[in-house]
Amino acid sequence: MGNIIAVDLGGSKLVVGLVSPEGTVLHSATAVLTGVPFTRETLLDMIDTCVKAIDFKAGHPDAAAVGVSVPGHYDHAHGVFLSNYSTGMRDWPIVEDLKEKYHLPVFADNDAKTCAVAEKLFGSCRDTEQYLWVTVSYGCGGAFYLNDRLFRGARNFAGEVGHVPVEFVQPHLCGCGVWGDLEAEASGTAIGRKYLERTGRATDAAFRSKEVSALARQGDKTALTLFREAGYYIGRIGAMAAMMLDIQKMVLGGGVAVYDFDLMKPGIDRALEDLLIPLNRDFFHVEQTALGYHASLLGAAAVAMEGINA
Length: 310
Fold this sequence. Notes:
Blueprint: E1 4-9, E2 13-19, E3 25-32, H1 40-58, E4 65-70, E5 73-75, E6 80-83, E7 90-92, H2 94-102, E8 106-110, H3 111-122, E9 131-136, E10 140-146, E11 149-151, H4 182-186, H5 188-199, H6 209-216, H7 221-245, E12 249-253, H8 255-275, H9 278-281, E13 285-288, H10 295-309
Parallel strand pairs: 1-4, 4-8, 9-12, 12-13
Antiparallel strand pairs: 1-2, 2-3, 5-6, 6-7, 9-10, 10-11
Helix pairs in contact: 3-10, 5-6, 5-7, 6-7, 7-8
């Protein structure tokens, strides 16, 4: 198998990489999406700019396929990026567009699902048959591996833990229309927004968990509390999954989980202590991804590898 052109289309950034069959990122190029029109034409141009950059770095290598992680609902049967509530993206036939552009096989999926596949192929779940992957980043998402296979559900929407309600007393409204879901309460965007609300500061869309993390690490009590609360919400999701499906673990990835897992862990541990029965408490556990910040990029490569071998 040859190398894969992997495209990680995030909510705030685009990363394109050349990934080896062993899961090594050989070359990569990044573009910032904040403030960029999230349209089909703009994103195709930005993807192509990044592809040309890694093509130049790698000396014009041959690639076996293109793999794509998309941040939202994805029609696996027809290759269509259906929706993203944060950006307003709708009904983009991304597989068809990229096939036409690069004349290569193209495989895509929801970003949390690609991450779950990558964790199985390259990460800490090689010997794990039942787990939940949760992305905590600009938004939140999830994917289940059950009986050693990615579980898609009836419409490829299984694992949408980002839109499961977790706060019932003072919930915030998510862009999807659900009050108090995980994305509205524990994403990087939510943590930043809540800090500004609680400290009486002006709204600032660019102020997110990264800024709150810096304050937390300086001892800011409001910042520390917000990360513990986010951890509790995430732990609540994990506890529900463990009780209903008897899974072995929950793996956390995405920028917030990669850089601030330690700040969220006290809240996660408290939720598991509060919400699991002893039999589950002694068995189920939560861990940080072994794939680091490039989990979604490796996920894009992983779904392409699986697609080629199918």
